[in-house]
Amino acid sequence: MTRIIDGKQQANRLREVIGQETLGLQERHGIRPGLAVVMVGNDPASQVYVRNKARQAGEAGIASFEHRLEANVSQQALLALIATLNADPAVHGILVQLPLPASLSEAAVIQAIAPDKDVDGFHPINIGNLATGARAMVPCTPLGCLMLLRQQLGELAGKRALVLGRSNIVGKPMANLLLRDSCTVTVAHSRTHGLAEECRRADILVAAVGRPGLVTGDWIKPGATIIDVGINRIEEQGRSRLAGDVDFTSASQVAGAITPVPGGVGPMTIACLLLNTLQATCHQHRLPFAEDIPQRALPTHRKPTRSVTS
Ligand SMILES: NC(=O)C1=CN([C@@H]2O[C@H](COP(=O)(O)OP(=O)(O)OC[C@H]3O[C@@H](n4cnc5c(N)ncnc54)[C@H](OP(=O)(O)O)[C@@H]3O)[C@@H](O)[C@H]2O)C=CC1
Ligand SMILES: Nc1nc(=O)c2c([nH]1)NC[C@@H]1CN(c3ccc(C(=O)N[C@@H](CCC(=O)O)C(=O)O)cc3)C=[N+]21
Question: Where along the chain is NADP(+) bound (predicted)?
Answer without folding.
Answer: 165-167, 231
